[in-house]
Amino acid sequence: MAMVFRRAHVLILMAAAVLVGALIGLPGRTASAAGSLDEVTISGAWARPARAGENSAIYMTIANPGPGDVELVHVETDAAEIAEIHETVLEVEVVDGRFTQEMHMHHMHSLVVPAGETVRLQPGGLHLMLIGLKQDLEEGQTILVRLMAADGSERELTVPVSQGEPRG
Ligand SMILES: [Cu+2]
Predict the structure, then answer these.
(1) What is the pTM of this model?
(2) HSE value, Cβ hemisphere, 13 Å, CA-based, for 102
(3) Which domains, ranges and CATH numbers included, belong to the chain?
(4) Alpha helices for the chain (secondary structure H)
(5) Mean pLDDT to the nearest integer, 116-143
(6) What is the pLDDT of residues 76-105, one digit of tens each?
(7) What's the 82 CA to ligand 1 centre distance in angstroms?
(8) What separation in Å is there between the alpha carbon of 76 and the centre of ligand 1?
(9) I need a surface site. Which of 16, 55, 57, 63 has the fewest CB within 10 A?
(10) What is the mean pLDDT of the chain?
(11) What is the three-class DSSP state of 150?
(12) What is the pLDDT of residues 40-81, one digit of tens each?
């Protein structure tokens, strides 16, 4: 019973996304040249503390003042077996006639930071998921993270382990 509604719900969401994409996608958003990670500014990066073997997440703000959309396609860190781009979404469903809310994480194959725009990775939304930590992540430590974009550009980041966005 619940599954039927869930599938219908997802289909409606997808149809709505396609429609919205078609509406806002028309002016000037079609042929943006591939942007480079060299052009973006990354600020406020932090990784959530966790134990070896567990999962963690990295958050940051990525600003793209450049002329091209930057498409993040791959993330690596020596601190974890796997790093993935994830999005947490709140799904509202009807189960047996009642509304329910559930948080779900989706694995995204890429993350686009559009030309002239800023994308925030934050708890409850977009994040870089670290799966299978090879080491404890303790507050005060830093980890090295490599980002790769569709144009082949790369950016290496030193990310502090912190309970929330570091101040100052
Ligand atoms: Cu995740």
Answers:
(1) 0.78
(2) 12
(3) 40-160 (2.60.40.1890)
(4) 2-24
(5) 97
(6) 999 999 999 999 998 888 888 898 988 899
(7) 11
(8) 15
(9) 16
(10) 86
(11) coil
(12) 999 999 999 999 999 999 999 999 999 999 999 999 999 999
